[in-house]
UniProtKB/TrEMBL annotation, chains A, B:
Keyword Mitochondrion: no
GO molecular function: glycosyltransferase activity; nicotinate phosphoribosyltransferase activity
Gene Ontology cellular component terms for the protein in this record: cytosol
CDD domains: NAPRTase_A (cd01570)
Pathway(s) per entry: Cofactor biosynthesis; NAD(+) biosynthesis; nicotinate D-ribonucleotide from nicotinate: step 1/1
Keyword field contains Phosphoprotein: yes
Residue ranges annotated for the Nicotinate phosphoribosyltransferase N-terminal domain, each copy included: 16-138
Reaction it catalyzes: 5-phospho-alpha-D-ribose 1-diphosphate + nicotinate + ATP + H2O = nicotinate beta-D-ribonucleotide + ADP + phosphate + diphosphate
Organism domain of life: Bacteria
Similarity comment: Belongs to the NAPRTase family.
Name of this chain's protein: Nicotinate phosphoribosyltransferase
Phylogenetic placement of the source organism: Bacteria, Pseudomonadati, Pseudomonadota, Gammaproteobacteria, Oceanospirillales
Free-text description of this protein's post-translational modifications in UniProt: Transiently phosphorylated on a His residue during the reaction cycle. Phosphorylation strongly increases the affinity for substrates and increases the rate of nicotinate D-ribonucleotide production. Dephosphorylation regenerates the low-affinity form of the enzyme, leading to product release.
Amino acid sequence: MSQHLSVQVDDGDLVLLTDLYQLTMLQAYWKESMQERATFSLFFRKLPPTRRFMLACGQQHAAALASRLRFSSSALSQLAGTGKFDDAFLDWLAGWRFTGDIWTLPEGTPVFPNEPYMEVDAPIAEAQLLESLIMNLVQLETVLASKAVRLVMAARGRPVVDFGMRRMHGVDAAVRGVRAYRTAGLAATSNVLGGLRHDLEINGTMAHSYILAHDSEREAFRAFARHYPDTTLLVDTHDTLEGVRMVIELMAEEPDLRVSAVRLDSGDLGELAHRSRALLDEAGFEDIKIIASSGLDEFSIQELVEDGAPIDAFGVGTQMGVSADAPVIDLSYKLVEYAGIPRVKHSTGKVNLPGRKQLYRRRDAQGRYAGDIIANRDERSVDGEPMLVPLVQGGKLDASVMAMAVDARERVRSSLAEMPEALTRLAPGESDYPVELSEELKRLQQR
Amino acid sequence: MSQHLSVQVDDGDLVLLTDLYQLTMLQAYWKESMQERATFSLFFRKLPPTRRFMLACGQQHAAALASRLRFSSSALSQLAGTGKFDDAFLDWLAGWRFTGDIWTLPEGTPVFPNEPYMEVDAPIAEAQLLESLIMNLVQLETVLASKAVRLVMAARGRPVVDFGMRRMHGVDAAVRGVRAYRTAGLAATSNVLGGLRHDLEINGTMAHSYILAHDSEREAFRAFARHYPDTTLLVDTHDTLEGVRMVIELMAEEPDLRVSAVRLDSGDLGELAHRSRALLDEAGFEDIKIIASSGLDEFSIQELVEDGAPIDAFGVGTQMGVSADAPVIDLSYKLVEYAGIPRVKHSTGKVNLPGRKQLYRRRDAQGRYAGDIIANRDERSVDGEPMLVPLVQGGKLDASVMAMAVDARERVRSSLAEMPEALTRLAPGESDYPVELSEELKRLQQR
């Protein structure tokens, strides 16, 4: 085994989080003095079967990191150690920095197959190097936000809380996942570091182990409620309804105790919620809320909501934390132009769109999405709102554009209201949302 | 959006990668002066439908990190900022360290449902705090190693190379994933930082963009082969067999060029491999190898191998990188003993095994796995080899035990030969591998 125990990846090492061929190609470009400008386009070819749209997320974060990327002396000495690089090339890498432009969709924008959601224009050795890192960073947040928004839709306004840190894929997924969840509209997270970093309310309840470590459930409830006024008590360790009755008894015994909610974490959640609600209401505790968790996904939440289960908030973990039904999208980062000439790989059966592009979104008279048009970037008089914005220009992050990310959560909220109903259905199935190519792009593609 | 742009998680912040309730329960234990020793057991209840065993991985790494975990002053001030913790408790956290014992299976051990693969014995406020972090760390490496070993089995001795960094879930998954891949038996990775940190050979080929950026495929091949003797050329940008013919022509023109392999990345890989092999052999290049990639998983590799496709190595990415068919296992970390008394949650339909445990693996006369027995830890004369070892004792990592992790790759290799054939089949299905409870554990469970 490697004796590398720390899981810390310093900002200075981040530049090494790439595929080796990026660096060998870079050295080749450097040796060949190839430094014309290239454009790479980030997109995906198809939706997972269980998604009707993806929520573009992480691209502003990735662009911001790319604009600051450097080869630290530690990174350079690690590369030197591989024996694969010339000293003169490593010297050149020491001065490497991104000087190009990055266009992105604002985070939280619903996005469809073949739509450019990021375009990088830069000398080829700059744009090429970003490929692996950008894809890794964007894929994570996009996949998680696109799953999380489905839970938010299913809950129809009831708060959804992330309890999934323990089941996510490692440290970075858990921390940056909260950023995606915030964008998608989750109400809170149990994840302390994720919540602190990415400005989402942190909350939590108690674990079964706390109950079991006490001499009795009653002792455990009493102690926890004394420590934490307005806490949530986990009532299913032995028997859910007995647990609810015990909370009620305890509050009768100690009128100063304040409990804000009970949490159901096993069994038939709908049935137990109804019966718990009845017990609480009967005892005069109409204000004690019911939180449910236990392997929930968008379909079980939808069913509970449609059945009228009196559940006030949902805690979700495993299924959302890895986007279990669609843990990956086939993101591509393709060269579409070099030295002013549109380029494209001629793969059979795959759409490849040459040249620098812009995405336009059209709306109907009610403000609802009516369809998208993918066009050449400098094409005039295309119908609709241009969606890609120049977040990084000349290697510099535009703070005013970056600030759009602050509104990503609100953008998602309003998008959900502006999408055709077929896009917001949770069941697998095609939507007929129209994505067309502009006339000029069609002509360019045919050449 | 959060303005937290760095994705770096310092070792000093790692302690905050936890669920809030761990910290609120800790404060409760501290207020209640509950400091008896607890034992928590890490296990999973069932295999994903497409796995016949899991490869335990990451538990030594997680234990090593746990033994060094501290609340840095930065972590404490972030906690103070939440307003949820008393100053006196935060002072106590400043001195918090793990002083207990951690028993683990050696990494690379095949593991089955309900088997303890890690047990933590410590004062409850120490053992409790580790829950979320250990689960997050162990789950990632276990899920990825358990997927990767299936690709290794499918390839029957042909090298399997990780090309998946861009599709993994963020920075830590990509870097630590390579550690899991090394254990599982992959031959190499394209991931520079992952390979450097976790001691797996780094290699790579070239991207379509390099071909497209040159005036012709021939120019690109020539340039790259001059820069990198014995390189691999990617031949499918326009037409795979034309690409192979071009490599042959180029080598005829420039006898000094040396190419070690061609890479096929689209189309019918079996058919193209046969035809490419024929072209190369006919031209006298029997030593040029063929590498195939393009959405491969264990089933497509198995089919190619069984069909006798002349492919010398496989590059795999997307499916392996997120373990797409089984991205998560339902790991549990359960309190099984407190203050010397075995404890257990009485859930309907779930197996919960009280008390401190040991796992024994029995072998038949040929040295093959014959079945496992889960026993009480201090039980005598249980048949088989005891599998859990005390990696951390009194808060100190045992370097000689930790060194077992160096052999994890070899442990996996030999395990594959020692498992009953039913366990090594790739198709979904039950194996009848016996996992039993010892007589004493059965008695304890019934009490």
